[in-house]
Amino acid sequence: MEQNIFQIIWFILWGVLWAVYFMLDGFDFGLGMLMPFIAKNDTERRIIYNAAGPFWDGNEVWLITAGGATFAAFPKTYAIMFSALYTPLLLILFALILRGVAFEFRGKEESPVWKTVWDICLVVGSFLPALLFGVAFANFFKGLPIDWKGIMHGNTLTLLNPYGLLGGLLFVVMFVVHGALWLTVKSNGALKQRAKVVAEKFWVLEVLLAIIFLVATGFFTDLWANFFRYKILLVIPALALLGLIAIPGFLSVGSYWKAWFASAATIVFTTAFGVAGLFPRLIPSSLNPEWSLTIYNSSSSPLTLKIMTVVALVFVPIVILYQIWTYKTFSEKVRPEFLETEEAY
Amino acid sequence: MFDVVLLSRLQFAVASMFHFLFVPLTLGLSVLTAIFETLYVKTGDEDYKRAAKFWGKLFLINFALGVVTGITLEFQFGTNWSRYSMYVGDIFGSLLAIEATMAFFLESTFIAVWHFGWNRLSPKLHALSIWLVAIASNISALWILLANGWMQHPVGYTIRNGRAELESFLAVVTNPFGWMEFIHTVSGAYILAGFFVLGISAWHLLRKNEVVFFKKCFRVAATWVLVFALFEVFNGHLHGSEVAKAQPTKLAAMESLWETQQGAPMYLLVIPDEKNERNKIELFPIPGMLSLLAYHHPSATVKGLKEWPEEERPPVALTFWSFRLMVGLGFLFAALSIWVFLKRHEIEKNRLLLRLLPWVIPLPYLACELGWMVAEVGRQPWIVYGLMKTSAAVSPISPMQVGVSLMAFILVYSLLGLVDFYLLFKYARKGPEAPATKVSTALSPATN
User: Has this prediction a pTM greater than 0.80?
Assistant: First the structure.
């Protein structure tokens, strides 16, 4: 019983880490994907880079921690999840590598070719992870064709099924809206107006995709079962939809920060919807429910879970506090004067 | 020939050795930058502020690749070594997770605060942010080396439910092997960063660029390198005797010792002949020296490689040469550091040393990589010494997948490595920004 509590705690933490990661790096991905369509000149492109400047690196650590927490708390899930998704995961890693260095390298040379190369890296490095994380998570919701030994019967193309692609598309659009809203907060003038228009247009698409996704989830997965068993859980998708509905309202009255927070809530609760639907499974097996990876058959020992709980309870709040402090310290808009300083990207 | 195990090992070697081209400079230069900035806060000397900015810029260029290639390493345990991850995740995974929560967040958040915060934070708070980066990166080294130390010398576990489960967290975090590795690796990283600063400063001093500025940098780095280069020889010896105790096969391979011997000598010149299980050449013995170094007694017995069946021995020549070369470089650094220290006050007059030092920059990089070769190749055929073979640890994936990703790694990493070193060269040659009081920042950097 005692062990069950720690397994449940870590399941929740596992979901929280992924949700926070998508909420934070989501706007970085959105900014990257938007850049070629929204920035008209080098100054505007640099504003986009610097809008993510002080944050992207700290945001990415949530991914490392989500991965590390999976490894520590559910080693068997970590092992099977990452080896079964070998190719897409390595694509994500290469994409993140290119995106990361694009931030650091782009401003280090004046040549337009040099800058264009890194701009392409930023765009691809933002689009691919957004798409592939969506594909991967939709496939987790649906279940992977893994046998009792955890061996995957299928390849990358197996993942690109309609439901998987729908998940990928939803993630891309969610992050585009999220990034556009971040840009309305961080910029001024024409760029901000364009960002606002993009956010509004893609919001329509996001609503459409969200509805299709929720319905498709009923057909392709059994996630809804948990929600009908424990009706209280229906609060989660309700909050996701509420956040989504609130976005245009805040936008129309010029409350850009609130619009961004509404979008953040949409992302967090969309992730939470999937995770809550999975419980107590981390990755269902589509071949045989018995072979699913659950918190019971894939977790670490009680001692490790206890120690990791202490570590998480001490350090995660501290991390959240100093990251909020950073967001506050660098909350002001990216002004053209700032781009003149040597520390600007 | 090209099976999943071999390809995965190659890929891990590429990914980790490439990653480690950037890690040591991060570990050392973060502390040196923090020292420069602290000197600025304490003395108000603008040169130290410029030093923090100049070395900090090089730090950032280097840091970018260090961070992004680090994620790959964490995920590769799952992608390529899933059976290993399942078997030891209970212990190994928790150390990685602690590293992320305790250190990576701090490091990655505050490097951005430092980078973007020059005009937004008070000087003291700004200096604190680079100290946090320095401390965090070194804490992260501690956790990762405790994790590696556990692979070298597993402690505090029990075999239960078909896997290694944690029995004593205290034993894992106080594992002497891990701590020795940490001390040895970090000192090595500090030596590397020190010679990096010395080499670049020497390059500028030789050309009479910013002489006052670079002499200040030089003096700090000279003292720094002296401390750690001497310390490295001492702790390297202790680390070696820890290896002798915990991993006798690795020690035998490091010394290419085939026969078990009481009062084993150390030969100054050895050429191993792995195929025939002997050494082609063994010259200039120092009697009892190997026994003395390994077990602190000149007549102690040192086990030879033939004590173990062939399939339980590591690749001898590679381990041996890596070790020899690393040790040779270590002594070279110690000697050089004494010379540099003695000449530090009038360094601008010593053209020989100034000419030499830029060429020394790559050597500590080589020494660090060699050290990892000894540690990792010398541990073979085990992934966890005595507990799990590397061949049993690999994921159930196809050689094709690994082959393709290995090529992608080589291609992407080579390109990025070239770009990164090009930028380091460019900004190192450019020198510091002109003092703010004299010229506006828009003008090109001063070269007086």
Answer: yes
